[in-house]
Amino acid sequence: MKTTLYSWNVNGIRAVIKKGEFQKFMKTYQPDIVCLQETKAKQGQAEIDLPEYKEFWNSAEKAGYSGTAIFSKIEPLSVTNGIPEEIVKKYDMEDDYGHPNKEGRVLTAEFDKFYVVTVYTPNAKDDLSRIPLRYKQWDPAFLEYCKSLEEKKPVLFCGDLNVAHTEDDLARPKPNIGKKGFTNEEREGFDNFIKAGFVDTLRMFVKGNGYYTWWTHWANARANNVGWRIDYWLVSKKMKDHVKKAEIHPEQMGSDHCPVSITLDL
């Protein structure tokens, strides 16, 4: 059975609905499961008419900020908000900006054969002030969480990881070395997912550069494809052979990010 899973940082679901782009996206791609990041809304604040889908939201306590959601045609067995408290305590995850577990950044849906986790990873900030959180707390805690789920069944995790993994994942690597999204610490965090056995699905099908998911609003970056790949689908090794396609959809407008998808055959 083929199952299509999409991930999209919508950068404000109300804005993308107002533009008509969210409706267009759902109609065009008809995903079985769609994972959203940076919803910037609580359930009920956005007008969504999708009777075929079950809706699950993890919204930030702060209004109009962060947040994740999963819309699924397949009823999940269970849904969990955030990272478990014992892992949060272990990594002492609060910093000067607040508590990332109160920012609606992780949402997990359990299905019959796998878990789907959507994540909106904290941004390191222009001055790199959130690098300590990313490096010592967030990335290891999120990895430990995914590994703990994997003990029960395979994991598919997706979202805006706020890092370009290699030089092939951004159009202009050299001037960006050491800047947010391309620091050694953030890239090492991604390396650790790979070392733990998770597979970057896009790289199963394509190599090299030119495959980007986010573009700045400046200087016609999107039209010129001067972008970064910071949105991903990673899967447990056990799921690798079931991934038949991994795609980026830059033709879908409405956000500074575009959707990314995988097609499974189970």
Written description of the protein model:
With 266 residues, the chain is α+β, with helices and mostly antiparallel strands. The protein has helices spanning 13-18, 21-29, 85-91, 131-150, 173-176, 184-195, 202-205; strands spanning 2-9, 33-37, 54-58, 68-72, 78-81, 106-110, 115-120, 155-160, 198-200, 231-236, 243-248, 260-265. The strands form two sheets. Strands 3-4-2-1-12-11 form a six-stranded mixed β-sheet. Strands 5-6-7-8-10-9 form a six-stranded mixed β-sheet. The termini are close together.
Give a quick rundown of the structure.
This protein has 266 residues and is of the alpha+beta class. The chain is built from seven helices and twelve strands.
What's the number of extended β-strand segments?
A: 12
Tell me the count of domains. Answer: 1
What is the CATH fold-level name?
Answer: Deoxyribonuclease I, Chain A
The overall average pLDDT, rounded, is 96
Strand content: 15-25%
What proportion of the residues is helical, as a percent range? Answer: 10-25%
**Can you write the helix and strand succession as a string?**
EHHEEEEHEEHEHHEHEEE
In which order are the strands of the major sheet placed?
A: 3-4-2-1-12-11
CATH architecture: 4-Layer Sandwich
Low-confidence parts: none
Q: Termini, distance in Å?
A: 5 Å
CATH homologous superfamily annotation: Endonuclease/exonuclease/phosphatase
Q: Structural class of the secondary elements? A: alpha+beta
- Helix count, DSSP H or I runs of 4 or more residues: 7
What gross morphology would you assign?
globular
Rg of Cα set: 17 Å
The CATH C-level name is: Alpha Beta
Largest sheet: 6 strands, mixed
